[in-house]
Design brief:
Helix content is 37%, strand content 23%. The chain contains 8 helices and 10 strands. The radius of gyration is 19 Å and the shape is elongated. The two termini are 31 Å apart. The relative contact order is 0.11. This is RWD domain-containing protein.
């Protein structure tokens, strides 16, 4: 195995850790498949991928909200540097495109109406971040112009976690405001139409560990939270220590 293939395998291994059950790779076809709650794409890695004079991944398919995103994703990829690992950047770019497509999709809007989902009532949203380190982003996660009427808990580090609950309109407004920031990965892992009562009470607080987030959620919601964090199998044993 040459150095380039080793780099590809390392990159894919990291992606599978960051996006469990969402990334698949076919070595024979050299195809990378990614699927999220909003959309999916398939890329082909050219033989010269990671060569300084090589080429970037080729978009075979990309869609979200019944919208074809192949052209839009290709434009994003064309601006990425040659010779560097860019699959994580492609996933982040696609997630942004997919979220925009779903928000603008008439079909998605009709489905929301049919299912009775509105911005009234209560809501809880759990967000997984690749990381939350930047001081300004941590401050925004704790208090933005949309945070009035929202209670929640945030955890910085790797990964970052944001959990917000309260009036549905305020919660969704806060989430949309935070989406506008430049995140390496911003994934809504759970949306619930009920308000979660957090142990600290009213307001948004920051904690240091995943264990503290679980304590805030409480036993009644513990398994739901761990499942959203892809940690469900550990819920009956222990919460792994944060990095």
């Amino acid at each position: 195995m040459d150095d380039r293939e080793k780099r590809i395998n390392t990159e894919l291994s990291l992606l599978e850790t960051m996006y469990p059950d969402q990334v698949q790779y076919s070595a024979k076809a050299r195809e990378v498949k990614y699927k999220s709650t909003t959309g999916a794409f398939v890329l082909r890695l050219p033989d010269e991928y990671l060569d300084d004079s090589g080429d970037v991944p080729v978009v075979l398919s990309a869609s979200a909200g019944n919208k074809d995103l192949r052209g839009s994703l290709k434009l994003k990829i064309d601006n990425l540097p040659l010779g560097e690992e860019v699959l994580d950047s492609i996933i982040s770019a696609f997630d942004e495109l997919a979220e925009e497509a779903v928000e603008q999709s008439p079909v998605a809007t009709d489905n929301d109406r049919q299912s009775g989902q509105t911005t009234d009532g209560k809501a809880t949203v759990i967000i997984w971040l690749h990381h939350l380190l930047n001081t300004n982003k941590r401050k925004l996660a704790l208090s933005t112009s949309s945070s009035l009427g929202v209670s929640g808990v945030t955890k910085p580090g790797y990964p970052g976690v944001l959990l917000y609950s309260g009036e549905a309109r305020a919660v969704h407004s806060l989430v949309n405001e935070l989406k506008q920031q430049n995140w390496q990965a911003f994934q809504v892992r759970l949306e619930d139409d009920e308000e979660w009562m957090l142990s600290h009470g009213i307001g948004i607080i920051e904690v240091e560990t995943m264990r503290e987030v679980v304590a805030e959620v409480g036993e009644a919601r513990k398994d739901v939270f761990l499942e959203a964090m892809r940690m469900k199998n550990t819920s009956r044993r222990h919460i792994p220590p944060d990095n």
